[in-house]
Design goal:
Layout (H helix, E strand, L loop, with lengths): L2 E12 L2 E12 L3 E5 L6 H8 L7 E6 L8 E3 L4 H4 L5 H6 L15 H13 L15 H14 L4 E5 L7 H18 L2 E5 L3 H7 L2 E6 L1 E7 H4 L3 H7 L17 H33 L1
Parallel strand pairs: 3-7, 3-8, 5-6, 6-7
Antiparallel strand pairs: 1-2, 1-4, 8-9
Length: 282
């Protein structure tokens, strides 16, 4: 496997508040990785730092064989995005600026051909001349994904791309991402609040909690205490499992187990005290 994105000791702060703390991981070329975790765990801050929107306070972000300007980035949906006053074609074309002559006032033939091919691939050509603001939420996301694809040949980073979509459109969007990954070899790094969809789609899981609590295969993630906590699962943990390419899992499990033991001890003590009080009353 060939590394495409390497993160070493990344720390990101908002003034004095640490949002991402000493995070390290590697995303390999052709991987499909999902970033999961509870609200406020630093998922969106992490990807914003990866694409250069937020400078790191410490650490390194190393690109292998590509540049930050060549990352296709799909941010979280906002009201401003939905009401963008431009045609579909104009929105998609702006994605070419990162790979071309950034300050040249006209698009090249190659850029126009790339935009047209990408629009055809994502099925947005039929409404190419429509205003972006007139489209449905699902159509807008496909247009923005086409824009992100125009910026890259290797790496797509998406921040909760399905957060405003209904289940049918969400399924369609994930199908497109799967085909891009499998058929075109585009590496995908996606933030998701839906743990079940993340596990269904991704090959690799990164579980954030300001620091990185897990980085490994989606299959092995099923066997962790983190997974049980996120899904509310109460099934028995396997007696043993492999920790290939997993970081911090043992420590996270140990911390959670210690918390669980402390809670159990407190509950047992309360029960004993209550029983003793009852006997005294008798």
């Amino acid at each position: 496997m060939t590394p495409l994105l390497e993160v070493r000791g990344l720390t990101v702060r908002y003034e004095r508040q640490t949002a991402v703390d000493d995070v390290s991981f590697i995303i390999n070329d052709g991987d499909y990785a999902a970033v999961v975790g509870e609200n406020g765990s630093g998922k969106s801050t992490l990807v914003k730092s990866l694409v250069g929107l937020i400078p790191p306070a410490a650490g390194e972000i190393i690109m292998h064989g590509t540049e930050k300007s060549e990352i296709g980035y799909l941010p979280q949906s906002t009201i401003v995005q939905k009401d963008f006053p431009a045609s579909v074609t104009e929105v998609v074309m702006t994605g070419c600026l990162g790979r071309g002559q950034r300050f040249w006032p006209f698009y090249t033939k190659e850029q126009k051909r790339t935009a047209a091919d990408t629009m055809e691939l994502l099925g947005v050509t039929p409404f190419a001349k429509k205003s972006f603001r007139e489209l449905s939420g699902g159509q807008q996301q496909r247009v923005l994904l086409a824009r992100a694809l125009c910026a890259t040949k290797k790496l797509l980073i998406l921040d909760e791309p399905a957060s405003v979509l209904d289940p049918v459109v969400t399924h369609e969007l994930y199908g497109i991402l799967h085909r891009l990954n499998e058929e075109r070899g585009i590496t995908v790094l996606m933030v998701s609040h839906d743990i079940h969809c993340a596990l269904e789609q991704a090959k690799t899981i990164l579980h954030m909690g300001q620091n990185l609590l897990y980085c490994g295969s989606a299959e092995e993630y099923h066997h962790t205490e983190l997974y049980r906590r996120m899904t509310g699962s109460c099934g028995d943990m396997p007696h043993s499992h492999t920790h290939h390419n997993v970081h911090h899992v043992a420590q996270a499990h140990s911390d959670m187990q210690a918390h669980s033991d402390a809670h159990s001890h407190t509950a047992a003590q309360e029960h004993t005290d209550h029983h003793t009080d009852g006997e005294a009353a008798t």
